[in-house]
Amino acid sequence: MQRLESTLERIDRKGYGAYKDLRGSYGFEDFDLFIDKVQRDPFAPPSLIRVRTKDNRFVPALFENPVRRVAFEDFLTRGVERAIRETVRGNRGSGKSGQVQIQRPSQIVLPRSSMVVTDGYVEARMAVGLPAWGRSVDARAAREMLLDELPEILHSALTPSGVDSDGARRHVETVEDAEHLRDRLADLGLVAFVADGAILPRESGTSDRPLRDGAVPFSSPEEFRVSVKLPNRGEVRGMGIPEGVTLIAGGGFHGKSTLLEALSWGVYDHVPGDGRELVVTREDAVKVRAEDGRSVAGVDISAMIGKLPGGKDTENFSTPNASGSTSQAANIAEALEIGASLLLVDEDTSATNFMIRDERMRELVRKEPISPFIELVRPLHRSMGVSTIVVVGGVGDYLDVADRVILLENYEPRDATGDARMVREKFPPRAPLTEGREMHPPGARRIDPSSIDLRRGKRETARGRGLHTVELGRKRVELSYLEQLAEAGQTESIARIVGAFAAGRESREVVEIAASALSNIEREGLESLGGFAGHPGELSLPRAQEVASAINRVRSLESRARKRA
Ligand code: ADP
Ligand code: MG
């Protein structure tokens, strides 16, 4: 600590480059400070530091198993973020002077690299903007940041005396309960569960926080109510959605998309107070939508789309510019390729001609390559064990293929399966469905790493740019339509996974690329994705589904689907 002080004194008012001398580690009274990377100038990306406590005096129950540990790390990251907001003065000069940052978590609990809890210490990884007067060192401000603000953050957010212990326990137990619930789904024959009392609507289209005023709490229809015993909370009751084909019906603005969205986020755990803590979905569920304009590389969509104009091959379908329906077919084929036991589909974001075709169009248009989704949902379940939850407001034909119908009225769900049967008798299907169709899994694709160019000037780069963009070399991969990508840290991890694959020589299957990266991370932590020496503090764990989705959207991608046996 004294060494830090004297170095600061020595470099005061010198050119900004003198900050380089701060690199290294410093022992404080109850923590160690590591200054891993020093920024070049006040406007460059901030400097990277780690703060590590000398011991870990938190009660071991908070981190005694991997699930609890991740939840506790998440809790601490949020605490540090709050402490930064409360104690750091902020702007102290030019550029990023005075800023202190830690990874910014969403409403979702994820393994992240911002915080490490071990039996022996707690370590937070942060970024700081070392302060400058113009372009020279402002040692006084730096001393305040490193010697006053940092210790205060540490005491209020990383030691048992500063941390709300009930809050920590609730956080950890909530996550453990959600994990348990999700793990039970398959045994119970369910694909999703929505607890009674859950708050599904969000504050606004741009905020993921719960709607505060006038939210109608979820209440399961008696027919779908199941009860599950959880390790911490005890018994919880709510709506179980069984495997098979489930329709969510209802008038416009009655809460259909809100329910489906809550289900799509149910692949992740949520923080206490979110409202969706006990809304869980199979972890491999994929929300699929139309995405016209996306590129598609060598995807086998033959199960959904037959002969295209010009004899275009649908077992190895490629296009730089997919239509609404072909993009949705490709999204489904890719979801099946990486592995999904549940598809979530919303009419609002689907291509109409992918969802349905009525008798008149069947008569008029003889050259229709697309088998509408309505003909695929049953075979998907029958031959591949893949369930579907589909939101429908406008096309009653789906009543013919549904195992059950959940009808939303004023945000309240009701079992309308019986009513639907009566409606079907009253209005028989206009065009009978093609019976006996089988659905087959798409052929797996092998990707050629040399089709991903990482060159950017003299360097090779692969990085995340916010939530929705991966930048590979000079090219950008657009991820706005991935509705289950939760935070920028996942995007950064995905970028590095794709980058590592592209830098290699070996062509591999998409499934392999994602699975081997994720199992590496499981063994060695997010650290294994690299970063500045000892400081990878901006990564969150992505799902295999989103890793694959990013690869699939690389515009230069070259791949071929393996012929099915
Ligand atoms: P739909 O898809 O049926 O047209 P949405 O799911 O888009 O309807 O919901 C319409 C509006 O109602 C949204 O503003 C949403 O936030 C709100 N909403 C949804 N569920 C609830 C609820 N349980 N309580 C209060 N408002 C809700
Ligand atoms: Mg809707």
What does this structure look like?
The chain is an alpha+beta fold and 565 residues long. It folds into 3 domains: 2-163, no CATH class; 286-426, Rossmann fold; 445-561, no CATH class. It contains 13 helices and 32 strands. A hairpin with a 4-residue loop joins strand 6 and strand 7 (122-128). Helix 1 (2-11) runs antiparallel to helix 3, helix 2 packs across helix 3 (139-157) and helix 11 (488-503) packs across helix 13 (544-552). It starts with a helix and ends with a strand. The relative contact order is 0.11. Residues 200-201, 211, 214-216, 250, 252-258, 411 line the site of adenosine-5'-diphosphate. The site of magnesium ion has 3 residues, from helix 5.
Q: Give the helix/strand class.
A: alpha+beta
Overall spatial form: globular
* Strands, count: 32
Proportion of β residues?
15-25%
- Unreliable residue runs: none
Largest sheet: 6 strands, antiparallel
The number of domains is 3
Features:
binds magnesium ion, binds adenosine-5'-diphosphate, 13 helices, 565 residues, 29% helix, 6-stranded antiparallel sheet, 6-stranded mixed sheet, 23% strand, Rossmann fold, single chain, alpha+beta
Outline:
With 565 residues, the protein is an alpha+beta fold.
How are the elements arranged and paired?
Elements: H1 2-11, E1 24-27, E2 31-37, E3 47-53, H2 66-87, E4 100-101, E5 108-109, E6 115-117, E7 122-128, E8 132-133, E9 136-137, H3 139-157, H4 165-185, E10 190-195, E11 202-204, E12 207-210, E13 225-230, E14 234-242, E15 245-250, H5 256-265, E16 269-270, E17 279-281, E18 286-288, E19 296-299, E20 317-319, H6 324-338, E21 342-346, H7 352-355, H8 359-364, H9 377-384, E22 387-392, E23 404-409, E24 412-415, H10 417-426, E25 445-447, E26 455-456, E27 459-460, E28 462-465, E29 469-472, E30 475-478, H11 488-503, E31 508-509, H12 510-524, H13 544-552, E32 559-561
Parallel strand pairs: 15-22, 15-23, 18-21, 21-22
Antiparallel strand pairs: 1-2, 2-3, 3-7, 4-7, 5-16, 6-7, 8-9, 10-14, 10-17, 11-12, 13-14, 19-20, 23-24, 25-31, 25-32, 26-27, 28-29, 29-30
